[in-house]
Specification:
By secondary structure, this protein is α+β, with helices and mostly antiparallel strands. The protein has four helices and seven strands; from the N terminus they run H-E-E-H-H-E-E-H-E-E-E. The protein has a single domain, classed as 2-Layer Sandwich (BirA Bifunctional Protein, domain 2). The protein is 29% helix and 17% strand.
Length: 150
């Protein structure tokens, strides 16, 4: 029987590291929400078009690095390689442009990119669990316009 192990480019986060990550996220939550940012959670996968339209069809991210698959309904879906495009999609879809501007949000979570294995770089970008913030308005979209907790 084959030995079960994490897929290449991924790793398990155990107690000590998971605890430290949670502490960083808790601190970021306090700082960002104290500055008027609200949390936002977007799906871990999106329609592929969300990334190809916003990042650009000709970029390395779209052409070489995205984990893209077709669901049972024939729709092209992609594990999110970055967070700006999903937040922009949510801003438009939820009608946040009708809210008082600017809309300030923060997010945290895993992002996925297919890259050649390198030291300290993985397909599941665990280091991208670093909280990020975006400030958006109908006059301008400024991802990470305010300092992030990177």
């Amino acid at each position: 029987m084959a030995r079960l192990q994490a897929p290449p480019g991924t790793l398990d986060t155990r107690a000590g590291t998971a605890r430290r990550r949670a502490e960083v996220i808790d601190t970021a939550r306090e700082v960002l929400e104290g500055a008027g940012y609200e949390p936002i959670e977007t799906p871990i996968f999106e329609a592929t078009e969300v990334f190809s339209r916003t990042v650009g069809d000709s970029t390395d991210i779209v052409q070489k690095q995205m984990f893209t698959f077709e669901d049972q309904g024939g729709r092209s879906l992609t594990l999110r390689p970055e967070g700006t495009a999903p937040v922009a999609r949510a801003y438009i879809e939820a009608g946040m442009h009708k809210e008082p501007q600017p809309v300030k949000v923060w997010y945290v979570g895993p992002f996925f990119r297919q890259e050649r294995p390198q030291p300290r770089r993985s397909a599941q970008r665990t280091r991208r669990w670093t909280p990020r913030s975006s400030c958006c308005s109908t006059k301008s979209w400024s991802a990470s316009a305010q300092p992030t907790c990177a």
